[in-house]
Predict the structure.
Amino acid sequence: MSGPLVVVDALARSFAGVPAVREVSFTVGAGEIHALCGHNGAGKSTVVRMLSGQLAPDAGRIVLDGEAADLRSRQVAQRLGVALVDQELSVVPALTVLENMTLGDIDAPLVTRRRAAVRRCRELLDEMGLDRLRPGQLVATLSMGERQLVEIAKALSQRARVVILDEPTATLSEAESRRVFAAVRRVAARGCAVIFVSHRLPEVLELCDTVTVLRDGRRVVTAPAADLTVDRLIVHMLGETPHRLETSRRPDPDLTHALRIEHLRVPGRLADFTLTARAGRIYALAGQLGSGASDVLRALAGLHARATGSVQLRDRAVAFRSPVGAARAGIAFVSNDRKGEGLFLDKPVAGNLVATRLDRLGRGPLVAAGRERRTARSLAELAGLPPDRLADPVLTLSGGNQQKVFVGRSLGRPDVHVLLLDEPTRGVDIGGRAAIHRLLRDAAEAGLVVVFASTELEELLELGDVILTMRDGRVVDTYPGGADGAVLMRDMTEGKDAA
Amino acid sequence: MRAAIRQERLVPAAALLLVVVAFVLTPLGTGSPLTTFDVYNALQGFAQIGLLALAVGLTMIAGEFDLSVVGTYAVGGMIAVQAGQSSAVLGLLVAVAVGAAVGAVQGALIAWLRVPSVPVTLAAYIALLGLAYAISGGLSVTFTNRDATLWVDQTVAGVFSPRSLLTLAAFVLVAVVLGGTRLGAELRAIGGDRRASRVAGVRVERKLVLLFTTSGTLAALGGALLSFSFASANPDPGLRPLLIAAVAALLGGASLAGGRGTATGLLAGALSVALLAQIVAVAYLPDYSTQLFYAALLAVVVAIDSPGLRRALERVRARTRPVEA
Amino acid sequence: GGGSSGAGTAAGGGGTQGKTIAFVGYGDASPWGAAYNKTFKAELASSGVKINDLTSMDAGTQVQNFNQAVSQKPSLIVAALWDTTATVVPIQKAKQAGVPVLIVDGRPDPAVQDDVMSVLSDNVKLGEFAAQNIVEGLKAQGRESGKVIVLSGTKAMLVTQDRMSGFGKVMATAAQYQVIEDQDTNWDPTASGKVAQQLFAKHGCDGIQAAYGMADYMALPIVQAAKQAGCRVGGTDGLVVTGGNCFKAGIAAIKTGEMYGTATEDPVTIAKQTASYVTRYFKGENPPKSELVKEDRVTKATVAQFEEQCSQA
Amino acid sequence: MMSLLTAPPAAAVRARRARPGRLAVALAVLVVVLLPVAVTTERFLTLGNARAILASAALVGITAIGATLVMIAGSAVSMAASQTATVVAMVFLATLDRGLTVATLLALLTGVVVTAVQGLAVGYWEANPIVLTIAAGFAIGGGAIWFSGGTPVSAAAGGYEILNATPLGLPLAVYVLLVLAVLAEWILRRTTAGRQLYLVGENRAAARAAGLPVGRVTVVAWAFFGLCLAVTGVFLASFNTSATTNLAGTLTLDAIAAVLVGGTAIAGGKGSALRTLGGALLISVISDVLLLRGYETGVQILVKGLLVLAVVVLVHLRGRR
Ligand SMILES: Nc1ncnc2c1ncn2[C@@H]1O[C@H](COP(=O)(O)OP(=O)(O)OP(=O)(O)O)[C@@H](O)[C@H]1O
Ligand SMILES: Nc1ncnc2c1ncn2[C@@H]1O[C@H](COP(=O)(O)OP(=O)(O)OP(=O)(O)O)[C@@H](O)[C@H]1O
Ligand SMILES: [Mg+2]
Ligand SMILES: [Mg+2]
C-alpha cells in the first residue's frame, strides 16, 4: 500500500445555489486519525455525507486506495469499506441491540445465524464497556449515551477500511468518551483510516494525528495535531480570537422572586433535589448523562409525570407535573433535543420566535398580525439573528442560529420567570456559544432565574454563578461562585467517596 | 419503554387467549357442544380475511398503511373469475400478477417520490374500485368452474380447507422470511426510524416497493380465493373487509406508528377476529354485536398504546402518594 | 313427515312445536331487514318454533353463517340472500345434508332454484309498477313524449336486474317515453342525490320528465335534487317521480304530490307471509314450492289503503 | 433603517423561491389538460351545471373542512365520519317534533360531543386517531342499530324544508359550506388556537415541551370537525327526509380525498381550509365532467381515482423541500 488510503480532491457541493463545501481537499493515510474541525455550518458534515455515500458531490472526486470511487449510496460506500457514525443518532429504537448491530450491514448473512451473531454482539458490547446490555434488549430501553455507544460499536465492528465518526462523543460522558477513543485507536492500529469530527477541541488534539480545519466550506489548514493548541485551532476556525466573557455576579437578594425546589424526586432517575434559586443568578447543574441533572430540569418543566416534591415560584406553588402547568407558572424550558422537542422546523423563524406567546399577541382569542411581526423582529434582534431570515423555515438555518431561535423564543416574556436549559449549546460552535451565553447572562440580569444543565466543564465554569455537581440522581456538592474544573470533574465522575 | 417489546407479543397472545376461552365456553350459553365443523367454519372465516390482514399488517409494521388492499381484493377476485373460467390456476396467476403490479406501482410512488401512503393508497382504492366496476359492468360475475369452487372449500383433516391451508401457508412463509432473514428487522427498522435505517444502509426504497408488491399480491390472492369459494365476484366489497383486516392487524400487535409487529402476532390477530365472528354465529348473537366487540377490543388497544393516558395515570399516582423513599 | 312440496324431506310436518329454524337473513342494520326480522320473529313467537339468529350484513359472513346453519341440522333454513351465486354451494350442501331451505325476498340462483322453497317478492312486478306509475303520470300531464332517468339499486343483485326487466318491458309499450339514463347508485341515498343533481345539470329541467328511484329513500333525494336545481316536481307539468320499497317518508311525499307513486315490497307483508308459509310447512300442509308475495302499486289514489302497511319501515 | 438594510437579501430569498416549482408546472399541465376537456363537454359551461357542481360538493365539502382542521392538528383522519353524520341525522329527524331550532341544536350538540370526546382521547391521551376512530365507527354504527333496532328514522314533524331552500338558485348547504370554509380559514390563520393547531400538528413533542395547550387545541379541532359533521348530518337528513343506517354512504373517504387533494399534509402542520374547498370542488368537477361525457359508472370512478392520485402526487411534489 503506497499512497494515502483516502484522497479527497477538490470536493464541492452547494444547496439551492449556496455553496456549503468549496473545493475541499485532504488525504488520510492508513492508520491515521484525521480530525475535521470548524464552526457550525462550516461544511464538516457535508464532507462526511459525501464520503459516506449519502450525498453526491457537485464537483471533485474521492479516491479510495488509489481508485476513484463513485459513492452512489450508503450500500456502495459500505461495499467499498466506508463505515459511518452519523452526526444524527442513527440506531432504530424499535429494534434490539443485536438487530441494530447488523442492520444494513452488507456483510451480514441474508439468513440470520443467530448464535454466532449474539456472540459477536456480546464481544462488541463488552469492548465498549456496555456489559450491562443484553443483545436481545430493545434499543428503546437504552439511554441516549448507550444508544450512541451501540452505534459506534457497530461502525467500528464493520470490516471497513475507512471509519468516519461525525461528533460521536457529543452525548457521551468523559469516561464513555475514553472507551470510544481506545476503540478508535485500536481500529486505526489495524490499518484503518479514521475521520473524526468534533467540537471538543481538547479531545481532538488528544486523539487525532492530523487536523483539517474548515471555514465557510473552505479548507483553511491541515496540520499535525502536535503542532496545534486549542487557541490556535480556534483562531483557524473563526479567523480571530473570541473574547472571553466576563461574568457579573450580582445576586438578587430578594428571595420572594426565588424558585424554591424541595425534595424533588423522579423514581429511578432523581433521588432527592432541593434548591432555592434566586432571581438574577445562573445555576449550573454539572452532571454526566444519567446523573439526574437533566431530570431536574425536565421535572420542573412538567415532563416527568411521576415527579414528586414541592416547587414554589414567587411564593406560589407550581403545578409541575404537566408542561402546561409549568408554563402557566412562568417556567420556560429549552430541551437538549432541538429537533425532536424544540423547534417547528418547517415553520418560519418568525413563527418559531412567537410560538409560545401567541396568546399574548392580541386581544382575546385573536392574534394581531402587526404586533406579531414587530415582536418577531425585535426578538430576532435581541437574539442576534439575521433579520432577513425571519421568513425562512428554521430548517434552513445553521445549528447555531437554530439554537438562538430556540433560546430567543423564551426571552422578553414578562410572564416567564424561570429559564431552564438542558445543554444550551449542544453542537454549537464557539462563536455561537458565546452569543448564547451572552443571552443567558442578559436574561439573568433582567431578573430571571436561570438554571441549566451541561456536561461541558468550560461552559459550567464560564456561565454558572452557582454550580451543583450531580451524580446518580443526587447533588454531590454545591459551589457558590468559582470552582476548580478538576474538582467538578471528580465530583461528576466519581462522587465524593473517592475524595 | 419496556412495554414496547412485550406489547407486540402480549396483545395478540391476550386477544387470542381471550377469544379461544370464550369460544370454548360458548356451549355453556348455547347448550349445544362445539363440533369440528365450528372450528372448520372459523378457519373459513380466517381464510376470508387472513391474507388481507397479513397485507395490511405488513405495511403497518413498515410504518405505512395500505388502504388499497380492499380494492386489489375486489379486482383480484374479479380477474380471477373472469380469467379463470376454464383454468382456475390461470385465473389465480393472472389475478396475483395484476395485484403485484398494482402494488408495485403504488410502492414506487411511495418510495421514490416519497408521497405518504394514505393519500396514494386511498386514490388507488378509488381507482381500483372503478376498475372492478368497469371490467364487470357493475355486475356480480359468476364463476362457472365448479370443480375449483368445490376444491377450495373441501374439508381437509376435519377442520381445514385448501383455502384456509393456503392462507396459513402464507403466514408461515412470511413468518419464516421475516424471522429468519434480515428482512424482518429491516422492515421494522423502516417503520421505526426511516432516516436511521437509510443511514445504516438499508435500501429503504427497494424494500418499500417489495412491501407494497407483497401486499398487493396477498390481497389479490385473498380476493381470488374468496371468489373461487363464492363462485362469484362482487365488484364492490365495501370498506368492511379493510376495517376488519385492520382490526386483525392491530390485535396482532402491529401499530400504525410502525416498527412493531410479527407475522405470528398477525396470525393470532386474524385468528382472533375469525373466532370472534364464529362465536357470534354459534351463540346466535345479533350481527351488530361483532361491531361492538371490535370496538371494545380496539378500545383496549388504543388505551394500551396511549402515552398520554399512561402519563395521566402516573401523575395521579404521584399526586396520591407524594412522598416515598 | 310430509313435506313433499319442499326440497328437503326430513323436517316438514309434525307441527311447529320443537322445530328450529336457522334464520340466515339480512341483518338489523338494513332497515328492510330490521322490520322483516322483527315481524317474522313476532309472528312465530307463540308457535313454539325456535329461531336461531344468523342474520348478517354482508355476503361473506352470510356464506359462513349459511354453512354454520347447515352443520346444525335445523328443521328449516330460512334465508334472504345478499349474493345469489355465493350461496349456490351452501344451498347444495344443505340439500346433501337433507336440510330444507326456504328462500325469501329475492329469488335464488337459477342453478339451485329447484332445490329450495321460496317466498319471493315479485320484483319483476315491482319494476312494472314503477314503469306504470311513470307512464300514467306522464300521460296524465298530457305529454306526447318524455325522457326518463333511472337510479337503480346495486346492479350486481338479481333483485335489481329483475326489477329492471319488468320496468323495461312496460316502458317498451310506451315508446314515446324514453329512458335516457340508467345509473347504478348502489342503494345509497347520498349517491343517488348526487348523481341526480348532476343529471339535472346535464339534461336540464326540460331534458328530464320522469325519474325512477328504485327505493323510496333513493327517490326522495331525486325530488330534492330536482327542487334544488330549480325544476318543478309533480303537478301538471313537473317531474314525475316513482319509488319502490314503500315507506313512511315516501307515502308522505305521495300525499303532497311530490312523488307520483311507489310500489310495495314492504318487509312486514312478506314477513307475515313467510311465517305463515313456515307454519303451513311444519304442519304438513304442503304449501306450494314457491309463493310470490302480492305486490301493489301505490299512487295518490290508493295511498290511503297502503299507508298503514308502508309505515312499518 | 432596518428594511433598508435587509431589503436586498430578502429579495434574493424571494427570488430563489419564486422559481416555478415542479408543481406549478404540473398543476398547469393538469389545468391545460382538464380545461379543454371540460369546456368542450356539452352543457359543462352552464349555470345549471355550475350549480350542480357546487351542490354536489357541498356536503362532502362541509365535512372535509372540519377534517382539514383535524389533519392539520396532526390527528390524521377520522374513519367514523359517516357513522357520526348518520347518527346526527337520526337525532335531528327524531327530535323535529320539538321544533326546528331545538332539533338542530340537539343534532349539533350530538355531533360536537361525540366527536370532541374522541378529540379528548387524541389530545390528552395521545390515542392513535385512526385506531380510535375505527373503534368509534364500529361503536357508533353498532350502537345506533342496537338502540334503533335498525328501523329508519323518519321526520317526527315538518319544518326542515327550509334547510332545502335554494336562495339565488343555490342550495343553502352551498352557502353554509362557503361560510364554514371562511370561518375555518379565519380560525386557522387569525386565532391563537388556530395557529397553535399548526404547531401541534407539525411537532407535537415540541409543542408539549413548550407548554402549549396541546390537549385543548386538539379538542378544539375535533369539536369543530364534529360541528361540521353535524351540519352535514342535518342537511343529509333534510335532503333525504329520513335516515337509514347507510345514509351517509361513502362520506368518510370522500371527505378525506377532498382534504388530501387540497394539499393538506396527512402528517399535520400544513394545510388550508380554502384549499380543501378547492379540493372538494375539483373532485366534483371531475365527477361532473365524466358524467356529462356519458362514461359508465365504473369508468367514472376509475378515472376519478386516477385523477385524485395524480393531484395528490403533484400536490405532494410541491410541498416537498
Ligand atoms: N440538505 C441541506 N440542504 C440545504 N442546506 C444544507 C443541507 N445540509 C447542509 N446544508 C447547509 O450546508 C452548510 C454546511 O452544513 P454542515 O452540516 O456540513 O455543517 P457542519 O460543519 O457539519 O456544522 P455542525 O458543526 O453544526 O454540524 C450549512 O450552511 C447548512 O445549513
Ligand atoms: N436547508 C436549506 N435550504 C436552503 N438553503 C439553505 C439551507 N440550509 C442552509 N441554507 C443556506 O446556506 C447558507 C449558509 O447557511 P448557514 O446555516 O451556514 O448560515 P449561517 O446563518 O451563516 O450559519 P452560522 O450562524 O452557523 O454561521 C444560508 O444563507 C442559507 O440560506
Ligand atoms: Mg454558517
Ligand atoms: Mg455537522
